[in-house]
Structures are given as C-alpha cells and as structure tokens.
C-alpha cells in the first residue's frame, strides 16, 4: 500500500520537518511500519552525511554501546584519512548519526570507505540533503530525530507497509542516489524490469543497499543527469525505460519532480499555489498543511512535472 508525499517552497523556507510529519501522519493508515524523510535545508559549504551503525532490530549484547562507539571513531578516522576536515559528528539515536565536514573529493570512495566499517550504512550525502528514516509512524520518527525544528526549502517522505521485505531501516524509503550528491527518491508501485536495470547500473560501478526498486529509480535518474540530461528529460526517458506500475517523486538540491507511468494506477494528488507545491498519495495529507479551501488535481498518464526553487 504505502504512501508518498512532497512539498517545495518556490522562494522562501518553511518548517518542512513539521509539515512533512503532518502529511505523513495523515497517511499513517497506508503504512505504519516505517517512515522516512528526505529534507533539504539551505545549501551548506559543508558536506552533510547521515549514517547508521546498527539497525533498531539488532540484538543488543552486553558491549553494544561500546562497539558502536568504537565504530563511530572508525568512521571519523576514515573520513580524516580521505582528507575530510570534520566539523561535528553527533548521535541522533543509539545507532544513527549526523556528520558534517569539509571535503572536496569524490563521494563514492568516501561512502565505500565508511560503509566498510562493520554495521555502517550511509543514508545520504550532500550539501543540503538529509535522509532520516526509522521504524514507526511519522510522529514517532519526528520526535526521535527532533524534526519539528528542521527548516528548509523542500522535502519528500514515505510511509511504508512492509509486504515483501523485512521491517528495518534498509528497507525504508527514501533512497539516496548513491554516489550522487543531493538526489533522493520515494516511490509507490513496482518495477517489473528491476533486475535488468540493477545489473546495468551495477556494471557502471554502482552498488545498492537494498532489494528495493525505489533505489533503482534514484540511481537511474542521477546517472542520466550526470550524463548531461536535465531532471525533466531524465524523468521523461524513465517512462520508456522503466516497466511496471509506478508513481515516483524525485528531489535534487533545488528541484522536485513527479512522474506517473502510462496507466497512472498509483494515486497522487497535487496542489499548487503561488508560493508552494504540495503533493501526496491522498488529499488528506495536503489538507494537513494547507488550512484553507483548495482545489487539487491528479496528474495524467505518462505525465512528468518538475518544480524549481
């Protein structure tokens, strides 16, 4: 079932952490197993890395805390070895962390080197993107990570009902488009040529953290953009290359886009005003953040829409 949502401010910033929580909590009935956010703050000269060193479902043995602390220090050491100047590494929970640092190199060797630390998984890397995801509904995750305080420009989110994989962080959305900076995707539906595209992208040197087809979309779009295509053109090409029934949202440092397949079977409702755009699987999510009478509409079959900051 699952539910997706997005919001973008065309000029100013807003309380996107609080607003995305309201949107996602309004769709809790579509998936209470896990909730995820891709949040965009103002662009920083620092690299922001969200990562985990364990899963909330992991067995907690007697040295769990000490082991995570050792591995956190290993992450810091590896960042330094690659030339990063660490600004701060802060714990967001028992197993999730946020690091900021100065770094001018490529993201792929950095992400790979960090993920070679036992239990480490990089959730996002970029100058404005921060992916936060965990088990539970939106209110639970927001309180755990203090997301009501997050001000920014745009965001996407996802509520998940686990049907084909475990209930864990690795199976939760959104997905960062490893190893591309500041690109993420949420998706409702299913790709029928998932394995074909996974093999193609792996041959280009990409690796995947999960078996989820949403991660394929993220890397596919980012790869086309790295080849010189605009976000809109890449998304339009995806309608020919990706088979299945799907609606997906993709975000970059300054854009939000939506695409629906040729059958448009997966629901999405859209509202646009002079200052912002909000879209979600159900209208109730939009009304959770727009407290006035509004008109919404559903994008058509094979429609691609992109909004710029």
Helix-strand layout with pairing:
Layout: E1 3-9, H1 16-25, E2 34-40, E3 47-52, H2 64-81, E4 85-91, E5 96-102, H3 107-115, E6 121-126, E7 129-135, H4 138-145, E8 154-160, E9 175-176, E10 184-191, H5 194-203, H6 213-226, H7 231-241, E11 244-251, E12 255-260, E13 269-272, E14 276-280, H8 283-287, E15 304-308
Antiparallel strand pairs: 1-8, 1-14, 2-7, 2-8, 3-5, 3-6, 4-5, 9-10, 10-11, 11-12, 12-15, 13-14
Key features of this structure:
Glutamine Phosphoribosylpyrophosphate, subunit 1, domain 1; single chain; 309 residues; Alpha-Beta Plaits; globular; six-stranded antiparallel β-sheet; alpha+beta; five-stranded antiparallel β-sheet
The number of domains? 2
The helix/strand order is: EHEEHEEHEEHEEEHHHEEEEHE
CATH structural fold name of the largest domain = Glutamine Phosphoribosylpyrophosphate, subunit 1, domain 1
Number of helices: 8
- CATH hierarchy, class of the largest domain: Alpha Beta
* Alpha-beta classification: alpha+beta
The rounded Rg comes to 18 Å
Helix content range:
25-40%
CATH superfamily of the largest domain: Aminohydrolase, N-terminal nucleophile (Ntn) domain
The backbone outline, from C-alpha atoms, is globular
The description of the largest β-sheet is: 6 strands, antiparallel
Name the strands of the widest sheet in spatial order.
7-2-8-1-14-13
Q: How many strand segments? A: 15
Report strand %. Answer: 25-35%
Note the gap between the termini: 31 Å
CATH architecture of the largest domain, by name, is: 4-Layer Sandwich
Mean pLDDT: 93
Low-confidence stretches: none
């Amino acid at each position: 079932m699952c539910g997706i949502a997005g919001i973008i401010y065309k000029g100013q910033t807003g309380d996107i952490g609080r607003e995305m929580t309201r949107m996602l909590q309004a769709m809790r009935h579509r998936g209470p197993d896990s909730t995820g956010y891709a949040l965009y703050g103002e662009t920083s000269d620092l690299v922001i890395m969200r990562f985990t060193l364990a899963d909330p479902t992991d067995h907690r043995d007697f040295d769990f805390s000490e082991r995570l602390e050792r591995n956190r220090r290993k992450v810091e050491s590896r960042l330094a070895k690659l030339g990063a100047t660490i600004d701060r590494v802060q714990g967001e929970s028992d197993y999730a962390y946020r690091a900021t640092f100065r770094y001018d190199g490529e993201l792929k060797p950095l992400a790979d080197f960090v993920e070679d630390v036992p239990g480490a998984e990089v959730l996002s890397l970029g100058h404005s993107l921060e992916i936060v995801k965990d088990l539970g509904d939106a209110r639970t995750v927001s309180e755990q990570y203090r997301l009501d305080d997050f001000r920014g420009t745009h965001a996407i989110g996802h509520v998940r009902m686990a049907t084909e994989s475990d209930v864990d962080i690795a199976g939760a959305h959104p997905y960062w488009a490893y190893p591309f900076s500041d690109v993420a995707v949420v998706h409702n539906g299913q790709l029928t040529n998932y394995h074909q595209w996974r093999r193609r992208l792996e041959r280009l040197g990409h690796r995947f953290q999960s078996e989820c087809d949403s991660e394929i979309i993220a890397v596919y779009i980012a790869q086309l953009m790295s080849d010189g295509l605009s976000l809109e053109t890449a998304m339009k090409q995806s309608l020919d290359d990706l088979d299945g029934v799907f609606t997906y949202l993709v975000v970059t440092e300054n854009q939000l886009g939506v695409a629906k397949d040729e059958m448009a079977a997966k629901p999405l409702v859209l509202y646009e005003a002079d200052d912002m755009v909000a879209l979600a699987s159900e209208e109730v999510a939009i009304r959770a953040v727009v407290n006035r009478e509004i008109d919404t509409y559903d994008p058509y079959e094979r429609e691609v829409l992109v909004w710029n900051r």
